[in-house]
Amino acid sequence: MKPEATTSSSNNLFDPNSYPVVPAKTFEDLRIGDVFRAPSRTLTDAHSSAFQTVSCDNHPVHYDVEWARRHGHTAPVVHGLQVLAFTAPGATLFPHYIGEVFISFNEVSCQFLKEVHSGDTLYPILEITDLIPQGDTGVVVTAATVHNQRGELVLSGQHKYLLRAHSI
């Protein structure tokens, strides 16, 4: 771990490179079962509108209340990819722990298990399920889950990241 950033009235030294959010880890420091939570988020219509703009997904199930009801939904459905985006490693402290050894985000998969609607609060979690050493690198496999405010699992998936085995 790098030394703490220091400042004092006498020397005014501050090194931004010595300002870790959390203590840095290497691939070898990670453990199966380590959990990285993202802050909970209550979705609003503004979130859905912003995602619709960015994704260009204009299917009426996402914004037309009457269309959604005619097709068996209680309300417009939040975009599945938007729910998946809440599992992005950067939404958690994970990249702060592995920032110096991170190489790439290699793979993502998921299943959408329940509908998400505006007003739902989501609780994303990444949990390390496997660590695969590969010489100078290693693959970290995480389970990516999102629950809603009722405790229902709305998304279940997996991420894979490639890390250097040792810090630079």
UniProtKB/TrEMBL annotation:
It comes from the Bacteria. SUPFAM superfamilies: Thioesterase/thiol ester dehydrase-isomerase (SSF54637). InterPro entries: HotDog_dom_sf, MaoC-like_dom, MCH/BMMD. Residues 32-145 form the MaoC-like domain. Pfam families: MaoC_dehydratas. This is Acyl dehydratase. It comes from Spirosoma endophyticum.
